[in-house]
Amino acid sequence: MLILTLILGIAYPNFCLAQYYINRPSHNFPEFKFPSENKELPIVFEWKNIQYGFPSEQERQQVLRNGRYNPDSPIPIDIDVYYPPNGGPARHFVTTPRFGQGVPYSLAYVTNVQRENGSEIQAYPSYQWHSSHGANCDGLTSVYRVHIDACGRMWILDSGEIEFVQHCAPQVVVFDLATDQLVHRYRLPESSYKAKVSRFVNIFADIRDPPPKGKCNDVFAYLADPTSKAIVVYDVVGQNSWRIENKFTYPDAKFGTHTVAGESFELLDGPLALAVTPLGLGMRRHLIFHALSNELELAIPLDILNNATKWQGGLSASLSEFVSLGRRGVQCASHAISRRGILFCGFLDPIAIFGWDIRTPYNRQNVQLLALNPDTLQFVSGMKIVQRPADGREELWLLSDRLQKIFAGTIDYREINYRVLRCDVDDLLQGRGCF
Ligand SMILES: *[C@@H]1O[C@H](CO)[C@@H](O)[C@H](O)[C@H]1NC(C)=O
Ligand SMILES: *[C@@H]1O[C@H](CO)[C@@H](O)[C@H](O)[C@H]1NC(C)=O
Questions:
Q1: What's the mean pLDDT when you consider all of the chain?
Q2: What pLDDT is recorded for position 435?
Q3: Which atom of ligand 1 is nearest to the CA of 308?
Q4: Residue 283: which domain range?
């Protein structure tokens, strides 16, 4: 199957690109018809506020006193799940970046311990990796999102900054989850970021030689830097990285106001969502991405993206290679693509999860409502597709965090504010409900 894909990709590049259509609707399209019954996603974890665990009660008291822990400050934004291949309990990872002070650590796993306001989390890989708050660049300064690959490794994106003070270079840190050992680290060179402007928030690691046949060595990682409005490509084998910044990575001012459940905030952000089209679909492979503050869904072929030479021309480089897939008329945050090519995204309005088959035009008929819940799906900031080793089925995992309430200052810690939800991908697509 893999060989077939490669042959098709090389022999018929034009045919493959023609699988994308360029839509130019004259007005916004979403007046989606809702199914008669609302489709619910089951909740796996929920919090009123994030419940941090510490190595000792003394440490908790000390960081509460010195301001390194303020229970009202942390906001979870990402979720990823690791199923050990030989069985054993799933591990659920969440991130709580250091947007400001008062976040004791920014990468954690969820424990079975139930506390007053939700499940307790514990630092990953250890408390010491986080406790210097930017003083030790061999640790982790501020993790925004992670990506667990098919080889059992977690790709961790550390922005290196706290409130735009660049304590350390942004870095990609990779852990082997079977052993919890550091297996790779790449510190971005100064040419790949803009200190005081960049904020790296998302990573997608494309494993081009996946198991069982591949060796997991041939990897390109894509990094989203929405504040400097760029995508960074990291060539792991070549130990090189380059920035892509042009009119397609820019926000659209018309989508700078984000309204969720009647509350609005302003954010003029570039690229946020990243996912590559899967191997084995017989298509020329693309990175599908969008800016948070934009309605456009975009694609760029991986063979162009992965060639550093193509990007030497700066703002005007390779512009004709970008494919404008369509417009949604509203923002959505993180997205994820299943192995059969269904792209999922959580729309701000309606507050719902939509699915789209990437081989069809991105339009009203093909972008379908899959789950609707105006309470539990407020701002889906983290989204992953995870394959269960036991039966090979895929699951969609989401983290919603009511970001609008944080910006508006209306967050109420007596309510549930943060949720992790899950559904079997096939069950969700077939409308069977989630089990
Ligand atoms: C990269 O792009 C350059 C410029 O278009 C081209 O000459 C070169 O062959 C490409 N390299 C690969 C590996 O495709
Ligand atoms: C739990 O939430 C309540 C209500 O907001 C708050 O007063 C309390 O401090 C929280 N407890 C912890 C351990 O975070």
A1: 91
A2: 74
A3: 1
A4: 1-46+246-435
